[in-house]
Every structure is written in structure tokens, then in C-alpha cells.
User: Fold these one by one.
Assistant:
Number 1:
Amino acid sequence: MKKQHSIFFLPGIIMVGVALRTPFTTLPTVLTDIASGLHVSVSSLGLLTSLPLIMFALCSSFSARLAKKVGLEKLFTLVLMLLAVGSFIRIFNLPLLYIGTLLIGAAIAVLNVLLPSVIQANQPHRIGLLTTMYVTSMGLSTAIASSIAVPITEASSWKGLVLCLTAICLLAFLVWLPNTSYNHYLVSKDKSSQGNTIWKNKKVWAIIIFGGLQSLLFYTCLTWLPTMAIQAGISNASAGFLASVFNLISLPFSMTIPSLTTRLSPRHRLIMLGLISTSGLIGISMLLLQTNNFICWLVINILIGSAVSALFPYLMVTFSMKTSSPNQTAQLSGLAQTGGYVLAAFGPALFGYSADFFRSWIPAIIILLALTVIMIIALFYVEKSDKIL
């Protein structure tokens, strides 16, 4: 495998991070404007947030196979082009809005799965730093885009916002383009036996469970914490502030967790994960209080937000640290993220249906608490393993 990499590799990684979420996470803030512009009801646009997650689940498992045939850097170039096209066609009509969203979901699924492999193939000794760069750029760009979406829409229209998002995707494509000359292929040593043994590996199942439940916890809390706070007696404005705290708390963790994960000793890493897990458990347990106290809800959002925000970059670094080659990294990442986004796509809906069925949030919170305990058990099983593949 070639050792060289382009001088555009670091800028490319940062721009890929920027393009990983903003094309679809920005639109929910202006759904009413989109509905008005297309002359449809707001409820008919509800799929815009779930379609990408469904595509993540469907397409993640195919990413490694594509990389073996096309090569990592060349596949990224093609996928970033698809991302820009998918974003652009959304401005024309409702069917193309959905088709474009599906294309965006498929493109981001490939980038999600293969980013750890691209980093390992190009700069295996800078896994922590490069993971920090793209996770931070992803979180920061998402926060900035969400905050300026409404002003951009008011100054132009929702189509103007989509064109701005398309420009970001196109810029990511152009910055990444020089990396295509340094194309790395995924190589599997033993195709026949590897596919059979991977499903018998308990550590693989542990990281699938951990990755899946981490995604479920994040997207469920992202979806329902504001509603739960409002129903408990918190004002809409305060609930909006709490949601921004939940999102922005990810920034310090995305900047520190990848480097800490690679640099800390196994013992200190266990202590770090213990603190993260404890904060998540306390935060979810506090949901059982059903209080209308703003400070209590602020603490809940900080604790849960900190836990899920810290576990995501840890998971991304783990894919590279616990495997021996970029091919194995892609395999493990694909499996874990497929399971993760299946749960993320259906978990929030089932959580909401549970609350409607029992006419109370308490049973759903207890189930979420139990799933968090299972996630933590899987997390520590993964951490104690030197290598998974």
C-alpha cells in the first residue's frame, strides 16, 4: 500500500467533516418555509429528517465492498460529487427534494463508514489528531449552519439556503479532488474464512451493540428532550436553549476525546469512560423526576449531552485502534454503523409511541435507562479488548 498522501489530505478531511451533517441537519429549522414554498403541509416533510438515517442503515454495509473495487480516495471523490448533486436537485420540487435527500443519505453513509479507514491508510500515526479535526469540524459546522439558516432563508428563500449548502458540498469535493491521485485500495487477506469468523467474534457483536445503542441514545434524546421539557412545564424558548446546550456541549469533547483515547494508558482510559458512563446514567435517571425546574433540565441536558458527545468520537477512534488494517477498519465501521443507524432510525419513533401507549414518559425512560446499562457493559467489553479484528 502506498505511503504517500496529498498535501490536501488534512484540508480534505476537515471539509468532509463539514459536509457530513450540514446538508440535512440544517433544513429542519426552516421546514415551515419549505412547506410554504412547495405548497404542502409541514407534516408531509417529516421524512426529511428520517430518510438520511434510513439510508445510513441501508448503505453502510456496502461501503467496504465499494472501496475494494474503486479505492478509498477515488470513492470519496465520487461520493462527494453525488452529495453535491443530491443537495442541488432539492430546490426544484417535492419529489426531487426527497430523491436528493436519499442521495445525500447514501453519500454520507459511505463517508461515515470509510473515514476511519482513509485516515488509517494515509496517516496511521495521527489517528487521534485527524479524528479530532473531522469530528470538531462536523460539530462546529452543524451548530453554525443551524444558527444562520433562518437569517439566510429570510434574506433570500429556502432555496437560497439549499444553494448555500450545495456550495459547501461542492467546495468539499474540490478540496478533496487532489487526493484522488493517492488512491488506496482495501485488501482482504482471506475472503472465505473472514466473512464466517467475523460473525462468531463476540467483540464484533459488542461493538455493534455499543455503537447501535450509542446512536439510539443520541438521536432519541435529541428528538424528545425538548418535548419532554415543554410537557414538564418548561417554556418553548427555554427548551430551545436547552437543545442548543445539548448540541454545543459536543464541541469540547470532539476536540479532546480522540487524542485522549489514543494517548491515555488503558487504566486511565477506563477511568475516563467510567466518568462518561456515570454522567449518562445520572442524566437519564434524572428524567424520572418529571420536574419543571429549569436548572434540573439544564443539568440533564449537560450530563446526557456530554455522555453521547464523548462516546461518538471514542467510537470513531476505536474503529482504527482495535483493527490491524484499513480493510478491517472499514468492515468493523460498516457493521457497527449499520446496526447503529437501524436503531437510530426507529428508536426515537418507538420511544414516542411508547409514551403515547402508556400515556407517560416513565416506562420509556426506564427502557432507555436499561438500554444505556447494556450499552455501558458492551462499551467496557470493547475497551478491554486489545484488538477486535
Note: The radius of gyration is 20 Å.
Number 2:
Amino acid sequence: MIQTTAKKAAGWLGEMSGAVADFGTFLPLVIGVLAVRGFDGTGVLTGFGLFALAVALVYRRPIPIQPMKAVAALIIVGAVTPAQAMASGLIIGGVLVALAATGIITRIARLVPNSVIMGVQLGVGAQLALLGFQHVADEPLFGGAALALLLLLFFTPYRHLGSLVVVVTAAAAFLITGGTGLALGGPGLHFSLPTFPTLADFQAALTTTALPQLALTLSNAVLATSAIAAEYFPDDAKERTSPRRLALSTGILNVVLAPFGALPMCHGSGGLIAQYRFGARTWVAPALFGLFCLALGIGFGPQARDVLMLVPVGAVGAILAVAGTEMAFNRRILGVKPSCRVVIVLTGVVCVGVNMAAGLAVGLAAEALRSAYYRRRGETSGI
């Protein structure tokens, strides 16, 4: 009885730890977007909350939800208006639904060999690590302390709880050392009514954000996330986290939530890596994340950004750095043919140096050349 209770408690703590493990990507982008005039915490955070709860219900696994990075980055620098961001979500969502409904996304996924998928995973891990260390460098006090704490926990049975310990400890330390200067009011009830972009907004969004983001979403949020989910949960049915289902859920939820002020959102292979590394295994992690976002969006609305700022970005950067480093140095790479390692490393380098879509394209070209070489020699080209 006691052992069963302890096991359940450990499982719940792991899910809680996993739920906050992706904050290193989520917090900087969302805080940056909410600082731009016209973007409201109610629509943005409520959108994340509803998306996460839907994902928990559909997948029953810790499939993450993240802002679409290309869109969020352009919002932060002032190149995209709220109406254009809404149009981007509707365009990308509609295209993803069409690709899933016609089966095109399934055919695309079949064309991507294992060596290229492993290269994308290498690139994702390296990107996570670099982003994490950048956040640590921006806030060296909190970031360095968080890295030290994660290193200590690494040698204990509680290593998977590192993200939860770091976030709670860092937020408490921030409050003690001056975070109470934030003027937070009491919670209330905040809701967003639907609005719709104009034709001009759709035209601007199509070339500015939708087309560049779509390539990144297909490569990272759909193909790479599906491949990593299959690796982490090999006993699941293949259709459970297939590219088709991931594209369909991303598309439908963006189309439904965008008019209410939600940011364009997608799944993310990096988020899955971080959540799994720190203990998430089931629907509980995305459900907890979703409830947290709903509480912020509905309860604090315009002040949600101030609440998010209670968690130092340097601390969550340390979480990303650890998860990304472990993913990048995957032992499976050592077990493949030397020629495959070339494809894997080349794909990963381009993913980091350019972007995920370019890495996928270069990897496919390199694998085609490698396979052609082996065919000419009459040898098998497997990994």
C-alpha cells in the first residue's frame, strides 16, 4: 500500500516536472509577444490552455504546445500586427488540415529516411542546448545556480524532478530578492470575443509569416515530433502520434482558436525532448500546463505577463541546456555506418546554422547521394 502510494506520488511529481520543462522556449517568446501593443494575455494564454487540454485528451502523451517561433519572432520585432498574426494562424491551420485530410503529409513522411530524422534530432538537441546556455548567460546568477542544482540532482534518484525543483526554487528566490516589486492586482475574470482579419491582413501574412513558418512547422512540429514520439513510446500504435494526426490537431486548433486572440501554435520536438527528460510520460503533463495557462489567461488577463516574469529565464534556460545536450549526444549515432554519420551531422549542422526546413532538405539530398553510391557498388544503404 505504502509502496503503491509512493509510486503514484513519484509519477505525479514527474508529470509536474515535465509540465514546466518546456518553459525555456515558452516563457521568452510569450513574454516578448505580450510586451507588444495589441497582444493581450487573455487570448494568448487561454489559447495555449485550450490547445494543451485538447492535446492531453487526444494523445494521452506529453505532446507539447509551443508558439510558432518564426511568427513570434516577427511579432516581437514589430513586423506583424495582431490581425496579421491571426491571419497567419488561420492560413497555416487551413493548409495543415488540407495536407492531413488528403494524405499528402503521410506521403511526405515516408520519404524521410532514418538518417535524416536522426540528423534533425541532433539539430533540435543542439538548438535547445544553445538557446538554454544563452538564457543562462543572460541571467548568470539564476542560470548558474540552476545548472549547479541540476548537476547535483543528476547523481540522485530524483534527477527527473530537476525542472520542477529549479522552477519553484528560482521563482521563490526571485521573489525574495526583489521580484515583489511587480505590481500585481488580484485575479478576476477575463474573456476574449472573436474577431476576424481583413483581406489585406491575409495578404500580408501569407508572405511575411505563413510561408516561412509552414516549412518549419512541417519539419519540426510534425515530422520530427512524430519520429521522437515513436522512439520514446514504442509500444503505442503508430497512428497515435503519426504526422497526419499531429498536422490535423495543429491545423484544427489554430483555425478554431486564432479568432479569439490565440497565437499561432504548434507541437515541437524540442518540447517533447525536454518534457520526457524531466519525467512526463502521460496526458497529465499537458493537462497541468493547460490548466496553468487557462488560470493565467482567464484569471489575470492583461497582467499574465507579469506573473510569467516571476520565473527567471536563466533558470529555465538551464533546464533546456541539460535536455538539449543529452539529446544532441545520442548514443545511437555511434552505432550507425560512418557514411550515415556524415548525413546525420550535416543535417544537424544545417538545422542549427540555418533552420529546420533547410536541414531537412540538405539531409534528404545527402542521403540520396549516399544511397546512390551504395547502389552503384551493389551494397545495401541501410544505417
Note: Residues 2-180+218-376 form one domain.
Number 3:
Amino acid sequence: MVRDSREGEAMAISLVMYLPDFSTGGAERLNINLAPELVRRGFDVTFVVHKVQGGLVPVVPSGIRVVSLEAKRTLGALLPLVRFLRREKPDLLLSSLGPNNIIAIWAAILARVNTRVIASLHNSMLGENLINNWQLKIMPFMYRRFLWAADGIIAVSEAVAVELAAMTGIPRDRVTMIHNPVITDDFNKRLKEPILHPWLKDNGTPVVLGVGRLVAQKDFATLLEAFALVVRERSARLILLGEGELRESLLKQAHRLDIADKVYLAGFVLNPLPFMLHAGVFVLSSRFEGFGNVLVEALACGTPVVSTACKGGPEEILDGGRFGRLVPVGDVKAMAHAISAALAEEPKRDELRARGRSFTVARAAALYEHLFYKLHFGPERLNPDTSADY
């Protein structure tokens, strides 16, 4: 909270959190988790989105203002965002995801306001270049050209921060690394929600669990191939939570591998925690990840995990393999062996829970607050209330 010396009244720093929408990705979840804690710390928070849509709309915090730019495409959001900035003149604009970061920088320049722009990066640019999406493929060039104009830059993992510095020439010390805020105050409550799927009540047959959008980045095709090898040696079932363009392809693959009766594609599930709690092992099969929220959630449930050693955050979350098995990206045999080994051993659940539950919203919010105060006031006038967090 800021004290206005002229009026003697407390004034909140106005913060806009700018997203495409409320889709079910990690960046959207980060902002939704972070916003209430920043409000509690005295910020006046507004969500600005292209459209109010997406699977996370039901969990957008009540009481936080949401403004829709009514833009069909990212570039179409530029002028509406310029008009919003001129009208509202917020103190800070936190943008998320590649194209949005560029639009936020351009809009602040065109609006000619004193709004400080903080661009946040949530994925590996090298990884995104593997995806057939022209907007993602041009991001390295766009960042090299325009990201210098951002007042602050946040990366969600050290791997993303180092990669960004290497690809753009922006000094590493200009990039603030803040791991995602995953563990919310209602975590235990969400954990205790009832289990609806009968496979999770069958203690005799363990469930292998994957969670994520059914897209190329998540590489569930490799997980299916690995699972087919696992069930040659032991009984198991596989549940995938998520929706996406590859659903039909994955179903066909399961039939081709003759494992369709052991695989269930449950679709998007708003709260995956009960599934994680009762799974025998959680597997992250991604080709790349900026961070890996679901990996943290699984650990926080005390569930053993297997992850690819992909570009991004998983190696940091698992501390190089200390808290879970790491396998090469796309290596079917290595993944199958790691899954079988995880199912065969008695997990150290207390250690896994402690690791997962260290990625709290409060801890991340303190780091965001520190950066916001530094940008708003300058380093010589940091909020003294945040000093205990560092």
C-alpha cells in the first residue's frame, strides 16, 4: 500500500494482469493463483483479456475486475489495449505469453503513459520453435527486437532465463527468475474432493497418470508407447486428463497398441489433485516446459513422478533427479523402465510432499511484490514490508 503525501491517504498500486483468455495453461493458472495474494498485499488488480473464455473461467477469483478487449486475434488487441491504458493509466502492466508480451510493449509506447511493463516468459523458445505455429516461430526475432523496451522481465525457471539471455543478448541480470506459484491456500481442501473414477478405487491395479493439453508439446504419444511396454510386464492402467487437437490420434494409437481397454482419456478436469493423490505414478512426458505446474502438484500430493529432462523447469523442480526420475525426451524404453521402477518401490512421500509444497503462492507473491515495488519506486524505495521475504 502506498501513502499519498498530499492527501495522507493510502493508495493501492494499480496492476493489470494481461492474458489472451482464461485457457487451461500454466500461465493462466499462475495469474489466477497470484492475483488474490497480490490483492491481499495491497495491489489493485485488474485482469485484461482478449476474450472472457476458457476452462479456468469458473476459478477466476471473485471480486477481481475483469476487462475484455473483445479481440478475435492477438494483433487485434493492440488498439483496444492502447485505449485502455490511456483511459486507466495503470501503474504496472504484467503481460504473459510471447505474443502478448510484444503487444503490451507496443501498446504502452503508443499510449504514451507512464505504465511500467513487465513481460513474463512461460516457455522455452527453442522448444516452441518445434511447434508448427508461425507466431511462436517468430518470437525469438521479436524478443531480440522489442523485449529491451520492457521495464521488467520475468522467467518462470532458470532454464528459461538463461535461454532468453543467450537468444536475445539481454543481460541475464535483467531477467528476474520466479518459479510459479502452485500451492494455494485451498490446496488441502481441493485434495479431499471425492474420487469419481472407479480405477482410482482399485488398490490392486495402479494408475499411471498424465495431465495436460492433448497437443504435440506434451508428447502423450511417447507415454502411450511406454505404457504399452509397462503392461507387458505388470498390470496397470493409464488415465490422461486434458483436451486438445490430438485426442482422436491418441485414441487410435491406443487401439493400435492394443491397450485401449487400459487407457482412459478423461477430458479436462478442473481439479486434478484427487487423481494425483490416488495415482501410482505421475508422468510428465513433455518435449519442453517452461516450468511444470502439474509436476509440483503431483509431488505435493506425495505421488512418485517421472519426467522428461526437457528444456525448461522439470529438472529444477526435481532438483536434478533427487525428487523424481528424469528420462530423455522421446525415449520410450527409458520412460517405461522409470515408470515400472517407480511403481515397484515404496515412495518417500513425506519428502515428495515437502518439495512440492515449497512452491507456494505466498513465496512467489513476495518476489513479484519486490520486483513491482522496485519498478514503481526505484530500488532505493523498496517496500520495507517485503524485506523479511529475502
Note: Residues 86 and 112 are 8 Å apart (CA to CA).
Number 4:
Amino acid sequence: MRTITTTEELAAFCTEAATHPFVTVDTEFLRERTYYSKLCLVQLAMPGTDDSGAVLVDPLVEGISLEPLYELFRNTDVVKVFHAARQDLEIFYVDAQVFPTPLFDTQVAAMVCGFGEQVGYETLVRKIAKEGVDKTSRFTDWSRRPLTDAQKTYALADVTHLRQVYEFLAAKLEKSGRHKWVEEELEVLTNPDTYITAPRDAWKRVKTRTNSGRFLAIVRELAAFREAYAQERNIPRSRVYKDDAMVELASNKPKNHDELGRARLLLRDARKGEIADGILKAVEAGLACPNDDLPQPDRSREKMQVNPALADLLRVLLKAKTESAGVAAKLIATAQDLDSIAAGSRDVQALRGWRMEVFGTDALALCAGKIALTAVGSDVKVVPV
């Protein structure tokens, strides 16, 4: 197993990789103690049937630059193949504001090819490559050096088997003509907004049981302070304060350090210094928020007048369509999408792009009473009315 530790070695590998139609990529990282993922290892493999074209890249070696790899990512003649690429792409975007182009995600492709929802790498390797994957090193500390032989073997297998998985899925997509479907799904992965959390919007991820605008205004300010503090210092949000502590603070509205000290769920470090000052300022800002700027909870679900019978029919139609198309149902429409369509909404993902072709057109026809569903043996068929 070859480990690259210099920029020159990486440049030489990437120059050779650029002569091939694709390269498989994976990473190992840690995120337990940081806000942003800490890249600990990069695995790369060129086409082939053995390990000779596969390498490990150690980004923790002093002086090494990943710029040759980023140049390869920008090379549109070489497909960059990942499995479940989201976290890998976030690492590269945060580090260098670069996305691999063109991109191929075998997890997305597998869903389009009928392997089920969010299928795991081990499952694909077992079904396509007829190999097993040793996952015993999955939860090891990838930042410690030297890496063990077991770690290196595990890491390399994540890109060597991926070559065969990619070739199989790419051929299947070529045969079915569904490349565009995968490309549509990958658009969100190559959108910078996917990986940027604006502090002002962080409150939307906090689960609360109160819909009071004033309460939510305090939560918004507390969440914004926590997000900015964590980003600037590259520490986990939970190291500042956890969601349950935030909800407690928004409920109790402490006005000074004495009142803040009575909080039950607040970490010790958050009761003093910059964090304590930030909390008090956030609470004050939330209390002072003008009424016309108070956050409004999303009540669209409550207002929906869902026709339950129609929603059930749409579920039957979706099952029939996914079985005939060989696509994971969740990839086409969620339960919320179906309820929204049954309530009359047309601004849903299931009615756009390739989903419209597979499911949306008949879904709208069913809602309009233009088609019906009938059972033919064990199958459900669409019939015009």
C-alpha cells in the first residue's frame, strides 16, 4: 500500500490519473471535536483490478498541499467517483471552495438503478463486486499517526471496490438513459448553499414546542450567537451550549449573570466569559425585536386540507410507479410530498424534473379524475377515465 506524503508525489499521481476516464475518491475525517470536519486521509484509485493504481494521501504531513488533487477535481475530462459524497464534498469546499467536476455518486446512482434507498457501500460491493468489506476500522481515530496496516487496508478498500461498482452502475445508467436523473440529484451536492449555515438561519433547525413569536425571536438570537461563535473558533455547537439549554434560556430569559447562573442545563464554561456575555446580549436582542420582525413558525402543514383518500391513492400510484421504474420510492416522493399534492399544492419536488416524467404527470391526472387505478393480478395499472 502506497502512501503519498509530498506535494510532488501527489502531483505525479494526479498527472497520471488525468489520463484515465475516472478516478475513485474517498476520505477519512474526524468531527467530534471541531465545527468543520478535520481531513485525516484521502484515498484515490485509478481504473484497474488490483491495488497498484490506488494510493493513500496523508494530508496531515507538514508541508503537503492538496492543490494537485484540486486541479484534478477541476479537470472535466475525468469523472470523480464517490459513494455518499456529501461529507467529502463539504470538506473540499470548505478547504478550497472547489467541487469535483464531473461528479458521480454511486449511492445516488444505485437508488436510480433500483438498489433501494440510501444503500450502503458494503451492500453494493457485496451485490456487484461479490466481495466483502472489513469495516472493523470504521470508528478508529484517523488523526493518530502512524496508521495501522488494518486502517490502511480498510481505507484503500473504500476506493478499490468502488471502481467495479461505478463501472456497473454507469453501464446500467447508459442502458436505461437515466444519466440525467442522477445529474439532477447531484445538483444539490454541488451547490455551496448546501454546506453554508448562516447564523441568522440556524434557529430553524432547533426543535421547540412553543410557537410564540417572542420566544422564537430569542431562540433565533441565541442560535445565531452559538453558530457564529462555533464557526469562528471551529468547535462543535454542543461545546457552546446544547439545544435543550437554548430552549431553557429562551423560556427563562435571564437578564444578568446571577439569573444566568440558575440555568440547569447550561455548561459550566457557558456561565462566564464571552459565552455568558453573548447569551445575555442575545436574550436582550430577542426581547427587543420589533413585532414585525418576529420569526413566524411554519404552519403550512397545519393549514393543509389533505384529502386522506386521495393521499392513499397517490401512495398506491407511487408504489406502482417505483416498481415498474425500478427506483426507490423515497427518491421520487416523500409522504409529505404526497400529502401536499393531495391538499392541492403543486410546488413540490415530486412534480419537477425527471420525477414529473415518472410519477408527477399521472399523479396530477389522478387528482383531476382523468385516470383510475386497477388491479391486474399482483400489479396495479393506470387506466384512463
Note: The chain has a mean pLDDT of 94.
